[in-house]
Amino acid sequence: MADGSTGGANGRKAALDPRDFLAVGDQLTPEERDIRDVVRTFVRDHVLPHVGTWFEEASIPADLPERLGRLGVLGMHLEGYGCAGTSATAYGVACMELEAGDSGLRSMVSVQGSLAMYAIHRWGSEEQKTTWLPRMAAGEAVGCFGLTEPDSGSDPGSMRTRARRDGADWVLNGRKMWITNGSRADVAVVWANTDEGVRGFLVPRGTPGFTTHDIHAKLSLRASITSELVLDDVRLPDSARLPEATSLRGPLSCLNEARYGIIWGAAGAARACLEAAADYAATREQFGRPIASFQLQQQKLADMALEVNRATLLALHLGRMKDAGTLRPEHVSMGKLANVNAALHVARTARQMLGANGITLEYPVIRHMTNLESVVTYEGTADVHALVVGGAVAGVPPAFR
Known about the structure:
Elements: H1 30-47, H2 51-57, H3 64-71, E1 79-80, E2 83-84, H4 88-101, H5 103-123, H6 126-137, E3 143-146, E4 162-166, E5 169-180, E6 187-194, E7 197-204, E8 210-214, E9 226-237, H7 249-283, E10 285-286, E11 289-290, H8 295-324, H9 329-353, H10 365-375, H11 382-394
Parallel strand pairs: 3-6
Antiparallel strand pairs: 1-2, 4-5, 5-9, 6-7, 8-9, 10-11
């Protein structure tokens, strides 16, 4: 008679791990698990003890880029030029662990590797690649990505920043807004409209006419530098132009890379909130017993576990598709839309479970909750991704206009 047992030659079921309920970790390769464990240890030892203070003080350590470079996560999914050349899935796993620490940490890595470095790697000249990529992979040089403007967010084609030819040079004028790493960056990848279409330019720190101003009074992504870039008659040689980028496809391809990392990162933030809520519920006593023993709290834990595991499985599936070369931008839009919304739901539920303690930085929940309010907006708002998915399902163009 069958006994219903599963798993293993001896018929015994594997032990249930509440922190990896569906044993998703078993689906990773040994290399991917090694990367997960190394990044998780870095976050546990070097980020979690301090990130609450960073968030409260709106600051990050000056040496953090070099520490991330030594960790090997900057541009890790790119080939050559000092980059590790890992799989897309391995990069995603790293993003998940980084954002389990803080969204600002994953944002720094994502902007560096998936926006600035990817732009140079995909669209740059050989000279640009050899000049910048090895230093950026090591964290010795920081990059930022200048696309969003004060009046041009979801519609980058309407950007007002312009570049005009002047002899052998280009002259850039305009402003970019909400730029992660902006004032820290040694080089800015700036996108501009020209008479020949959208073009990308590398603007080194200290170029005459190029200034940055940090954005203060943020209540989200506080452990992250966010800046305005100002370009006032910035003169650049033609060698500063990304030669292979000749349309809006250039910056949009970079955004797609960054959005992919967010799919994994949001799952990490959600997992961190679930773990905090589960630990709290097991020790917080009310009416003479831990609140984890009450039905309402168990229902909340089940609901959060469902969202976390579903988000992680979706991220893994999309990672395998990306490694196989079958991932489309529409798939990425679905992943970002689903996982960030799920993470927000988990964070808000966890905040309620922690009661008044949920609003303090002693626990990670409120920090993740406010950070996710930025994550749901940048790299395409939830509304924009919903239109992309809806249009694809309907078989018509997204209804942006």
